[in-house]
Write a structure and sequence with these properties.
six-stranded mixed beta sheet, 21% helix, endonuclease, hydrolase, Uma2 family endonuclease, 186 residues, Nuclease_put_TT1808, alpha+beta, globular, tt1808, chain A
């Protein structure tokens, strides 16, 4: 017996998910994962504060960015939800009126967890590169590591790796130095 045709996922599939799941469409496939666990949420929230203050609000930094938690990106047929994303205001002067973004971010950050790390690394990171995201960070609260990547013609170049509690200054936000340990719960 032949395998039945697999239909590509639609936005209606995402809308039908229970509220405890985050849904994304990657290469036509519905990918779901639970809402973040506390350690993951702590790292993401504190990173949003650390980057958002100086770059989104201009508090102790240059401003000029939109920094948002879990924005829904509709890009080239994909629906992606990074943990954090940022757009330079010169490229996107105002936020869209829709519940999603169709403008490619300048920076994304994925906070890795056991349920998302494989998709974040093997599927989403290459996809972000091919879509033209300029900078990507992977933050792992379990190993206490931040990896910073720069897009080189659609391929990621590992630019910096930081671990533990050191003070960091990481592109594209190198204008401000901050303590990496602020992202870890212990």
């Amino acid at each position: 017996m032949a395998n039945p045709a697999i239909r590509p996922a639609t936005y209606e599939d995402i809308r039908a998910l229970p509220p405890n799941l985050v849904g994304e469409i990657i290469y036509g496939r519905l990918v779901t994962h639970p809402r973040p666990a506390p350690r993951h949420a702590f790292a993401s929230s504190n990173l949003g504060i650390r980057i958002g203050g100086p770059f989104n609000l201009g508090d102790g930094g240059p401003g000029g960015w939109w920094i948002l938690d879990e924005p829904e990106l509709h890009l080239d047929g994909h629906v992606l939800v990074p943990d954090l994303a940022g757009w330079r205001r010169e490229r996107m002067p105002r936020l869209p009126d829709t519940a999603w973004f169709e403008c490619v971010p300048d920076w994304i950050c994925e906070v890795l967890s056991p349920s998302t790390a494989r998709d974040d690394r093997a599927e989403k990171l290459p996809l972000y590169g091919s879509l033209g995201v300029a900078h990507a960070w992977l933050v792992d609260p379990d190993t206490r590591v931040l990896e910073a990547y720069e897009n080189q013609q659609g391929r990621w170049l590992l630019a910096q790796t930081h671990a533990g509690d050191c003070r960091v200054s990481v592109p594209p936000f190198e204008a401000v130095k901050w303590a990496l340990g602020e992202l870890w719960t212990e």
